[in-house]
Mediator complex subunit 22 (Absidia repens), 116 residues
Amino acid sequence: MNNASQQSATRPMLQHMEDQYNKRIDDDITKLVDCFSDIIKIGEVRSSESLLGLIKELKQYLLLNDTKTLTSLTEQRSTALTTQTAEIKTTIQDLRKEVTAAIYDMESVYYRSLTD
């Protein structure tokens, strides 16, 4: 009977120790989950910052090294300037003709007034 009473006395003590170990394990697992959550949050922030930096670099690369677009824009600007230059030259020639005609008319009137 002594052996049976000893087993019944140790059983609650073992149960209590098991409960304490389970509680410690639960607390440690909760702490690990919290730490991993923090690590994931920090990783997400760093990933977002990294992606934004990558997007910025790609945009700069595209702007600086997109020769097809740069060539197209340069050609469009050149064509527009050539057209504008031709229009200005035509306008100047028309003005020159008008001024020449006006001078001729004024000279005619002047020389007529001298002969009259």
In short: The chain has two domains: 1-65, 67-116. DSSP finds two helices and no strands in the chain.
